[in-house]
Amino acid sequence: MLIGVPKESKNSDDRVSLIPVHALKLTRIGAEVQVETNSGKNAGFSDEAYIESGAKIIANREELLKTSDILLRLGKPPNDEIGKLKENSIHISFLDPFNETGLVSEFKQNKITAISMEMIPRTTRAQKMDALSSQANLAGYVMVLLAAEKLPRILPMMMTPAGTLKPANVFVIGVGVAGLQAIATAKRLGAKVTAFDTRTVTAEQVKSLGAKFLEIDLGETGQTKDGYAVELTPAQLDKQKQAQKDQIAKSDIVITTAQVFGRKPPILITKDMIPEMQKGSVIVDMAAETGGNVEGSVGGKTVDFEGVTIIGDGNWSNFVARDASQMYSSNLYNLIEEFWDKEKKEFNLNLNDEILQGCVITNQGEIINERIKNL
Question: Which residues have a Cβ under 8 Å from the Cβ of 85 and sit 6 or more positions away?
Fold first, then answer.
């Protein structure tokens, strides 16, 4: 099978979906790999490195699209490129299928098998393919660094002859993969960290990192079988906002990571809360690009709101493009290797397997994923 790696469509994305070391591993199991010219350049991977790994460099993008049996990307493709793909080929990337119904329809009409990396089940067996978690881990780290850069004070306590500087207060809302990494990073930098999540089972994880868990009695809450927080009722959400208000006001940095998979993220910080924070404080809204946890945040931008900096840049892992590429490339290789038929030297699309049942969206001109089909 011929595996193709096009350069990412967004000019602002420096990542690449497959790095040379995994291209080499794919060639060793019998695949052929072709990579568009300069695909890995901005992440630090030269065309020469791909050639040494056994991959072929292709300058003609359309040729790569129409000849590849499997196409590997990070971001979703432009709609006008789907018709250029080889019929019955396999396209693997983040697809946002709950919101991109037009994109899903294009895959269906053009008889492309679309695999969505967001939909990889969160099971022990699929953990090595979980790209959402690998990118979120890096995002948690990056968000703390971006906040620290904008904050007009240091994070650790510092005792000097001129006096003692108190540690900065960091409040993390949402203790998933990104939230836990944000807590760990802020603690390593010396900040005083408090965190909250609607899933009380995360309290122990927060405390194990040396942070304080903010106790809020919201009544019955829980998580899905995949580990995502269950959506709160309007009454519970209002109670959460009010209970968090004091903590937000006394925090130098607030990082929100609350996202409900497949739905618009909840608003956790309203415009009336922000002026209560000290001037110069920083809020990082991880969900800004998909609707936001913070009123006043702007997807893809950093803005000033009454003296408080709100960071909504998005594509967080792209700030560390080399490591982000390495982790995502590993996720893709593990997915392909898991279903690789060593005798036939091809990808075995076993739709009876629970992993592929979860992440394959379209196949042979039909939407076959039950969750997407029932939207």
Answer: 65, 66, 68, 71, 91, 110, 112
